[in-house]
């Protein structure tokens, strides 16, 4: 039927031209069109022979089937396509074509006689009738290039390949024909001859299809696996395994309908073959034929599917798995040296036996399996799970049930021994560079179920032990105090005391009885001090031989001496008779408490806590070597232990001790101290020793933090958000605050002592020689008074004790506060004296002595006050006849650097011995110069 039809023309048929109807005709196509995308999708579900028949229908369908991407996809499914190789081949072909075309152009130019400048040597090139035509692309040349590249020979023009699948001859029954021995060998290595060439993917796939498809199709049609052609063609098990591997790889490219069933049937055939080979391997394994059948069939399984079944069979039959209970018993590690003990020797023997047995099996693995089979990884995992994990779980459960400390030691010690054992394990030749990384992963897997419980118990154990240590110290102090009170009050007759209350009161107040002598204590900083580093590392503390006995150079825990709880650092002297009155007993109790300030917290307790924390951190730090999140948790655990140490020492021990010391200092009264036993301000001396002890503890913690956390990289001091860094700063702040509060109270006590010395040691005739009866007013002593000397000795001896034990800023503040309060105390003392002109020389000497002492403090601001005080002492040296000059001095504010006003200087001038004789003259002179102080 014709595809043309006439078009209706309006107005009738034109008679002007016979061609007019033809010009008006239109071609209308009635042929149906099917979308190419749907056709391409349908092709994916056709088998290869069906696609080749489809390609013969038309040119368009041929192009669709021959599309290179379709066959590249199949090669990719088999794992035979390398995109990088294809890109390099395409670039090489492009360069080759360009060079070929260039050489052709040069050859034709020579034939035509064209020179370099484009002119003909004899005749015009365009007039040469014999010049051949040149094209940019020649299919024959392209085919020849491909053939030459593939075979490595010279370029040849090969006949065009129709479909690429006609290299296989088939028998009429569909079975492969009898293959030559050369063909059977080449089929085994078929994938080694497949190249990644763009534009030739169909031909490359055709090689594989022609070699393996007949075996694949025959295998899925066989009812009996033994009748498969692959087993009749190849009789050697190694060749059979390699061919089955090739066919299995080829089956991945089967995308046509029903591929799942075909795949399952072929996998069943492979499974039957694998089972038969595994049975032979097992029999050889039982017979111990390592170098013979075991090696042979292990290689067969490796060629078949990687040898995983052979590895699993070897591991299950391994001697280290079968005889794991003979390597060691976990319960032998416990209670070996006593109840709750843990023996590291037993666990070490277990890991040593495991290492020896493991290395023996590694030697067998190297003999059996090829280098392509990494059998060591599943072997290590099975040994870790079935042998080591079972051993450790039994050990940990029993230790946790019986004794927590043994449990903690067992977990840490076995982890350390396990890590050490892994470094003695020998890898196989197929292990690769990640063998020890695999071991670390196995270790992490084994300890994963135990690490959380261990870290929790480790922290709780340290908290309980440190709390018990501090509680024991506090309990001993409380018992010591109660025993001391009981001893002092044991000889008191309360009825007699009530009848003679006034008498006993006068004896206590006016003549205080210090029942217990002041037991001398060697300062923790006297002689050669014990360094903080030595204390942290557990080295022996310095001791001093005294009369054949050793006295510790540090405060220690209270002990029991002669039936009475006392501090063990006190000499065992014979105790005097207890007091017989209640007030005397209370005074003795107060003196004993003031003496006991130095033992309110102890280096011994701090050392015990530090050593306990060190043990906990060292145990937990072992897990940092494991790596991963276990290492992160272990680092955090070490920081938490250090934080708990700071909290226990800072809040519970040191802060509480300083608070008690400040409370004892506030109850000190200089008047109640016996003059014969007075050697400075004893409570302040003991408190400053306590400050030194606190400073030593702080240094000890600094060394501990540096050695155990910073050097081992368990913490970062530069991370200001780190909890350990924040807690350490908080501990230092608590210590500074407590020391500052104690020093403030100590300064008050020191000034009370200064006032007491001034009141008791300053004689009236020091500043007024004629005041004493029988004294000569004309005798002048220009040296400083005894009271001033005692005050300077007392103040300087106490301020020097802080040098080197506290922060420089705190020391400067302390010295300045001492100087200011000393200045106020001296001003108050001057206003109580009566000073004559002759006695003013001793006063000036005293002021010079105070000024010289203040210079040693190196504080310029403080020095100005004592300069003013020194100038103030000059007003007593003015002769009574020079009242006007005295008035000028009083009114001169610049003379006293603005520290004393005229009114204050006037008040000091009233303490002159001749003031009532010169008062009117001085006041008139002051009125005269316009100064009114009244």
TrEMBL record:
Residues 118-127, 544-556 have a biased composition (Polar residues). SMART domains: FBOX. Residues 92-132, 544-578 are annotated as: Disordered. Pfam families: F-box-like, Sec10_HB. Transmembrane segments: none annotated. GO terms for biological process: exocytosis; Golgi to plasma membrane transport. GO terms for cellular component: exocyst. Residues 28-74 form the F-box domain. Gene3D superfamilies: 1.20.1280.50. This is F-box domain-containing protein. It comes from Letharia columbiana. The lineage of its organism: Eukaryota, Fungi, Dikarya, Ascomycota, Pezizomycotina.
């Amino acid at each position: 039927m014709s595809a043309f039809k006439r078009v209706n023309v309006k107005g009738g048929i034109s008679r002007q031209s016979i061609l007019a109807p033809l010009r008006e005709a239109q071609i209308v196509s009635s042929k149906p069109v099917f979308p190419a995308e749907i056709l391409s999708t349908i092709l994916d579900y056709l088998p290869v022979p069906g696609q080749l028949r489809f390609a013969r229908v038309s040119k368009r369908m041929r192009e669709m089937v021959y599309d290179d991407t379709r066959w590249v996809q199949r090669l990719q499914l088999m794992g035979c396509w390398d995109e990088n190789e294809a890109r390099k081949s395409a670039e090489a072909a492009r360069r080759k074509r360009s060079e070929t075309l260039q050489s052709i152009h040069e050859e034709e130019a020579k034939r035509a006689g064209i020179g370099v400048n484009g002119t003909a040597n004899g005749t015009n090139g365009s007039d040469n009738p014999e010049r051949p035509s040149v094209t940019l692309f020649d299919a024959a040349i392209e085919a020849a290039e491909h053939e030459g590249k593939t075979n490595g020979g010279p370029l040849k023009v090969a006949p065009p390949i129709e479909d690429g699948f006609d290299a296989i001859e088939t028998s009429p029954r569909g079975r492969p024909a009898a293959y030559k021995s050369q063909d059977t060998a080449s089929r085994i290595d078929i994938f080694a001859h497949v190249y990644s060439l763009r534009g030739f993917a169909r031909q490359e796939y055709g090689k594989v299809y022609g070699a393996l498809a007949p075996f694949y199709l025959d295998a899925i049609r066989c009812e009996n696996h033994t009748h498969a052609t692959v087993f009749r063609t190849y009789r050697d098990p190694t060749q059979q395994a390699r061919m089955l591997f090739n066919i299995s790889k080829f089956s991945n490219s089967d995308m046509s309908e029903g591929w799942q069933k075909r795949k399952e049937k072929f996998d069943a055939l492979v499974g039957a073959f694998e089972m038969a080979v595994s049975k032979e391997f097992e029999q050889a394994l039982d017979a111990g034929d390592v170098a013979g059948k075991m090696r042979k069939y292990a290689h067969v399984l490796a060629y078949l599917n990687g040898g995983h079944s052979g590895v699993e069979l070897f591991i299950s039959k391994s001697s280290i798995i079968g005889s794991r209970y003979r390597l060691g018993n976990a319960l032998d590690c416990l209670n070996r040296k006593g109840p709750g003990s843990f023996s590291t020797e037993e666990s070490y023997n277990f890991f040593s036996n495991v290492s020896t047995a493991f290395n023996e099996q590694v030697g067998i693995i190297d003999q059996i399996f090829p280098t392509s089979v990494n059998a060591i990884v599943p072997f290590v995992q099975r040994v870790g799970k079935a042998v080591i994990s079972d051993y450790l779980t039994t050990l940990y459960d029993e230790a946790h049930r019986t004794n927590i400390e043994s449990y903690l030691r067992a977990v840490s010690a076995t982890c350390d021994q396990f890590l050490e054992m892994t470094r003695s394990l020998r890898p196989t030749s197929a292990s690769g560079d990640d063998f020890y990384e695999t071991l670390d992963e196995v270790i992490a897997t084994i300890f994963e179920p135990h690490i959380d419980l261990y870290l929790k118990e480790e922290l709780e154990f340290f908290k309980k032990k440190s709390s018990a240590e501090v509680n024991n110290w506090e309990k001993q102090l409380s018992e010591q105090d109660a025993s001391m009170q009981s001893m002092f009050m044991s000889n008191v007759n309360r009825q007699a005391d009530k009848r003679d209350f006034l008498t006993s009161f006068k004896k206590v107040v006016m003549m205080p009885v210090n029942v217990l002598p002041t037991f001398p204590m060697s300062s923790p900083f006297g002689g050669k001090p014990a360094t903080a580093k030595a204390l942290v590392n557990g080295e022996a503390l310095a001791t001093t031989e005294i009369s054949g006995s050793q006295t510790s150079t540090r405060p220690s825990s209270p002990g029991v001496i002669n039936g009475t709880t006392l501090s063990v650092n006190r000499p065992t002297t014979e105790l005097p008779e207890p007091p017989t009155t209640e007030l005397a007993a209370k005074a003795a109790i107060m003196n004993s408490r003031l003496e006991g300030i130095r033992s309110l917290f102890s280096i011994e307790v701090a050392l015990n806590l530090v050593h306990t924390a060190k043990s906990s951190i060292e145990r937990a730090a072992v897990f940092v070597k494991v790596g991963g999140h276990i290492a992160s948790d272990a680092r955090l655990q070490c920081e938490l232990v250090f934080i708990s140490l700071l909290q226990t020492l800072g809040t519970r021990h040191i802060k509480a001790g300083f608070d008690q010391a400040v409370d004892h200092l506030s109850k000190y009264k200089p008047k109640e101290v016996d003059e014969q036993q007075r050697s400075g301000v004893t409570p302040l001396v003991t408190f400053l020793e306590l400050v030194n002890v606190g400073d030593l503890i702080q240094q000890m913690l600094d060394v501990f933090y540096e050695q155990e956390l910073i050097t081992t990289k368990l913490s970062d001091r530069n991370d200001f958000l780190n909890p350990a860094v924040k807690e350490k700063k908080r501990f230092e702040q608590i210590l500074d605050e407590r020391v500052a509060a104690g020093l403030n109270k100590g300064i008050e006590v020191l000034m009370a002592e200064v006032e007491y010395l001034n009141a008791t040691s300053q004689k009236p005739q020091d500043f007024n020689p004629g005041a004493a009866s029988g004294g000569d007013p004309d005798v002048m002593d220009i040296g400083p008074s005894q009271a001033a000397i005692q005050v300077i000795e007392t103040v300087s001896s106490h301020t020097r004790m802080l040098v080197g034990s506290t922060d420089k800023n705190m020391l400067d503040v302390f010295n300045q506060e001492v100087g200011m309060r000393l200045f106020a105390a001296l001003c108050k003392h001057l206003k109580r004296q009566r000073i004559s002109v002759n006695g003013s020389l001793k006063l000036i000497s005293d002021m010079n002595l105070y000024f010289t002492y203040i210079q040693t403090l190196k504080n310029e601001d403080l020095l100005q006050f004592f300069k003013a005080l020194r100038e103030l002492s000059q007003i007593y040296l003015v002769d009574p006849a020079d009242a006007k000059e005295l008035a000028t001095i009083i009114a001169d504010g610049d003379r006293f650097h603005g520290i004393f006003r005229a009114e204050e200087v006037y008040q000091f001038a009233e303490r002159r011995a001749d003031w009532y004789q010169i008062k009117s003259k001085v006041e008139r002179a002051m009125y005269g110069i316009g100064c009114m102080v009244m």
